[in-house]
Design goal:
single chain
Length: 78
C-alpha cells in the first residue's frame, strides 16, 4: 500500500511530529488535510491526501519513532 517510508526521528516526539506536519502543509501544494487520530497507546496519526494518494505521519509510541508512510515520493517537495 505505502511505497515510501521516511524515518524522521528514532523516538516519539510531539514537537517533531507537529513540525513535520507543518512542513508538509507548507511545502506540498494542494495537500488536503484528512483525519487526525490518537491511538490507545497515545500514538498520534495525521492523514493527508495529495492527488488521491495518501500520506500518513505517525508519532508512534509502540514503534518508538516519528515517521511518514506515503504513496508518493516526498523528497521532490523539500
Amino acid at each position: 500500500m505505502y511505497k515510501y517510508d521516511y524515518n524522521i526521528c528514532t523516538e516519539p516526539d510531539e514537537d517533531i511530529f507537529e513540525r513535520q506536519c507543518a512542513a508538509l502543509e507548507k511545502h506540498i501544494p494542494s495537500l488536503k488535510k484528512g483525519p487526525f487520530m490518537t491511538d490507545v497507546d497515545n500514538t498520534k496519526i495525521q492523514i493527508y491526501f495529495k492527488d488521491g494518494k495518501k500520506i500518513k505521519v505517525k508519532n508512534d509510541y509502540m514503534v518508538g519513532a516519528v515517521y511518514i508512510l506515503s504513496e508518493i515520493e516526498l523528497t521532490q517537495f523539500f
